[in-house]
Every structure is written in C-alpha cells, then in structure tokens.
Structure to design on (150 residues):
C-alpha cells in the first residue's frame, strides 16, 4: 500500500492543477485500483462524500492554502511505485487528466459511490460520510467489465 500523499505528488509531477482536481484524481486512482485488484485499496486514507465531490480529508490540509488556484507542477522528488500502481496512475491521468476540477466534480456527482454515500442529503448539504471501498470496487469493476465487452 502507498500513501495518498505520494499519489498526489505523482499527479503533480505530471502537471500543475487545482486542489479540487488533485482530490478527484486521487479518488479515481483509489477507485480503479480497488476495481481492478479485487477490492484492495491503493492507500489507507478514507474518502468522504463532500459537497464538491469525493475528498480525502488527510490530504486536504496539504493543499488548502492554494484554495482555487493552481498547485505548481513538481519537478523533483517524483515518487517511485511498482508497475501495477504506475499503470493505474497513468490510466487515471490519461482518462481524467484533461478534465478540470469542476468537470471532475460533475462526473463524480453522477456516479453511484458518491451518490450512495450522501444518501438523502441535498446537494448543498455538508457531509463527511465515507465512500465505501466495496461500492467503488463494484461500480468501477462493472464499468471495466462493460468496456471489455464492448
């Protein structure tokens, strides 16, 4: 298992991005890793269903000072991961990296893991409910199987 801090650093070695975007990319890395490796988490940190989409609270203070601005691209200290992890991170970045933080927020709002974790809450209501690893595994695993069958 790797740390979510290292995962965020890996994404920031690819390009500068907003705090919202880094949160969503880390979420998708966790989700797809769980889906493709039978529920095994990439990192141990909890992901919660906040108003603006999935957020990893332990990662939040690292980038909170940037607010809505860009976090600079890292040019040093790129984390080193095993091949499985790099394959997931590259696939996530290639799939979602071209989207903005706001676009990623909208996408996560349309997907079962975030919707299920929020339950009956209104879209603007605060929430710290955890997003289930099992739901992520099942939902994204199903999407993967559908893509394989197409």
């Amino acid at each position: 298992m790797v740390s979510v801090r290292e995962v965020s650093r890996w994404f920031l070695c690819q390009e500068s991005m907003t705090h919202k975007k880094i949160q969503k990319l880390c979420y998708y890395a966790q989700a797809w890793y769980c889906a493709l490796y039978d529920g095994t988490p990439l990192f141990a940190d909890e992901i919660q269903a906040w108003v603006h989409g999935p957020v990893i609270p332990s990662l939040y203070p690292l980038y909170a000072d940037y607010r809505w601005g860009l976090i600079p691209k890292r040019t040093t200290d790129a984390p080193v991961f095993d091949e499985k992890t790099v394959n997931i991170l590259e696939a996530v970045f290639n799939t979602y990296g071209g989207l903005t933080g706001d676009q990623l927020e909208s996408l996560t709002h349309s997907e079962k893991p975030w919707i299920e974790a929020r339950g009956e809450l209104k879209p603007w209501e605060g929430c710290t409910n955890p997003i289930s690893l099992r739901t992520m595994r099942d939902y994204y695993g199903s999407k993967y199987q559908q893509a394989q069958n197409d």
